[in-house]
Design a protein that fits this description.
Shape: globular
Helix content: under 10%
Largest sheet: 15 strands, parallel
Distance between the termini: 30 Å
């Protein structure tokens, strides 16, 4: 059955009848090296706008679950089949939905397409625009980890072109609440938060020295209040070891579409690794003398953060006290930081205060201040970094050594490989803030390789204080870069005075699939992109902390490793309007 469903989007290099060549990278859970994750699908390319969500991330079995989808063809005129199913993440069992059917929109065990057609008569055609269209609504008394999945498949159904995931938890247990009376919670012994329970935080939670807080994959932590913060103290540990299909989510305790940055404090880790001032105190904790960090153990471990999202955090107490979504204070290289996302933080998304922590697959999106920040002697590594700046945000990176002494040691000198930085101009060329791509100052050094940077309202690279001299001596360097369309300028005009000649870059279009400020982006370079050309990227060194096979430019090769575990877009896009088309279904 073939029908033209609506004008769709120009397929940005759809590989008809064949799958894009698989990435040469693999995944490892080694404590020192994490390769590019090929558990994400290697998909053909489409810049169609497709995302799905439920009204909450966590439900009780007495609640009503409602799921929605938005699909915009964006001028893609290719033909597809469309499928929707609900899946139990733990068992893999799925039931299909046909919300486009006029006769049946309930859950079915057999495979049907979006319109209710079975195998042999799947509807094939151009994509129909769906704006906040209801997929399903009803009671769900079966607890567990669940997801709705929307699939765009090729006309013959053999290729998944794009997926959207709406993940949620259903709990049969009453939520556990901390700090509702305005008092601190002290975790003094080993404690586990399980994914069959919702956790609500209203005030400070401290993981004390000698204690370990273990958080199961798929656990949802719902926080609210300026003093709602999780602090892992020096000598304490957090083991938040999520999975791609079951990320750990720490977010604002409000319905999706109604959450807001500064809803709660965030996640703070205090370690024993060196920093420029010997020891320091983390911001945003009461009393201010309690959160001590810094020491002499560069290999100190604060635990594991893997597949963890921190959303709508970063309370703005005052100009000098602004905790970040992820605050890494004196955190050592023994800490595993792998697949983390800071989303819609009021201040910085991810910040390193000294220490030697390494981060792989680090995402900062929608930060109202800087996406990635460091100071006080951070000298770790980061690889596969994706920065997606809010149109009203400040700098992509703001980096210091120490404002009280530019040459204090250990000096900030991180190494960053395979980074894609997208500024607000890509989302809104008229109202984007004038923040820089990178602002380096106060004695920091940096080594950057395989960089894509585009669309910042300010300069691509603003180097101040004594930091310019490090580019002259070679102690700082940026090479194998594509830098374009920053400050509304071209070529060397994108840079602060005198720096451009010390940067190895090309001013060419990187040809990224979809970096719009919306849900479910796909920042992979399209086939034919200069980011994928032979010799364009630099092979990272084999120092045990980096994936040496990532010789392409930017954070993405052929794999969209953001798929499934991340959350993107303006919260207003998820706010349900009264004119939304509704389909009511009930039952399991």
């Amino acid at each position: 059955m073939r029908r033209s469903l609506i004008p769709l989007l120009v397929l940005a290099m759809l590989c008809t009848g064949s799958v894009v060549a698989p990435a040469q990278d693999t995944t490892t859970t080694d404590t020192t090296t994490t390769m590019e994750d090929t558990t994400a699908s290697v998909l053909p390319y489409s810049s169609a706008r497709l995302y799905a969500w439920t009204t909450k991330l966590g439900f009780l079995t007495t609640d009503r679950v409602t799921a929605y989808v938005t699909l915009d063809p964006m001028d893609d005129t290719a033909e597809y089949t469309l499928f929707v199913y609900r899946q139990n993440i733990e068992t893999g069992d799925r039931q299909y939905l046909s919300p486009g059917s006029t006769t049946s929109s309930g859950l079915q065990d057999g495979v049907v397409d979006y319109w209710g057609n079975a195998a042999g008569s799947y509807q094939v055609g151009a994509l129909t625009a769906l704006d906040q269209s209801q997929l399903w609504a009803g009671s769900q008394t079966s607890p567990g980890l669940w997801q709705f999945v929307v699939e765009m498949r090729s006309a013959d159904t053999t290729q998944v072109v794009k997926r959207a995931y709406a993940k949620y938890v259903v709990s049969a247990l009453p939520a556990i609440e901390y700090g509702t009376d305005g008092t601190d919670t002290e975790i003094t012994t080993d404690t586990t938060w399980t994914n069959d329970t919702l956790y609500r935080i209203r005030y400070q939670v401290f993981v004390n020295s000698g204690a370990t807080l273990t958080i199961e994959p798929g656990t949802h932590i719902l926080a609210q209040g300026q003093n709602a913060v999780i602090v892992v103290e020096k000598g304490g540990k957090i083991i938040a070891d999520g999975r791609r299909e079951a990320p750990i989510v720490m977010t604002c305790d409000a319905d999706i579409g109604e959450r807001y940055s500064s809803c709660w404090g965030g996640l703070i880790l205090l370690g024993d690794a060196p920093m420029t001032r010997g020891t320091g105190h983390a911001e945003g904790v009461i009393p201010e003398t309690r959160p001590v960090y810094g020491g002499s153990n560069s290999e100190d471990s604060s635990g594991v953060l893997r597949y963890v999202r921190v959303e709508f955090a970063g309370v703005n107490f005052n100009p000098e006290t602004q905790p970040n979504a992820f605050g890494f204070h004196g955190v050592g290289s023994g800490t595993i930081i792998d697949h983390i996302q800071a989303h819609e933080g009021e201040d910085d998304g991810i910040e390193f205060f000294g220490g030697s922590a390494n981060c792989t697959y680090c995402v900062s999106s929608g930060a109202k201040d800087d996406s990635l920040d460091w100071a006080f002697g951070w000298n770790g590594t980061a690889q596969y970094v994706y920065i997606h700046q809010d149109p009203d945000g400040d700098n992509g990176i703001e980096a210091d050594n120490d404002s009280s002494g530019f040459d204090r040691t250990p000096r900030s000198s991180p190494k960053i490989y395979n980074m894609t930085m997208i500024g607000g101009l890509e989302a809104d060329e008229f109202s984007a803030h004038g923040g820089d791509g990178m602002r380096l100052r106060r004695g920091t050094q940096v080594t950057v390789r395989n960089l894509v940077m585009s669309g910042f309202g300010g300069e691509a690279l603003d180097v101040r204080d004594n930091s310019p001299g490090f580019f002259m001596t070679g102690d700082s360097s940026i090479k194998n870069a594509i830098i374009t369309n920053n400050a509304g300028e071209t070529g060397d005009s994108q840079f602060s005075e005198g720096i451009a000649t010390h940067v190895g870059y090309e001013d060419v279009a990187p040809m990224l699939t979809n970096v719009r400020y919306e849900g479910n982006p796909d920042p992979r370079p399209m086939l034919g992109s200069p980011a994928l050309e032979a010799g364009a990227g630099s092979s990272p060194p084999s120092d045990g902390a980096l994936d040496t096979s990532a010789d392409f430019v930017g954070a993405f090769g052929t794999v969209n490793w953001l798929e499934e575990w991340t959350f993107f877009g303006d919260e207003a896009d998820y706010e349900i309007e009264t004119t939304t088309t509704t389909t009511t279904t009930t039952g399991q």
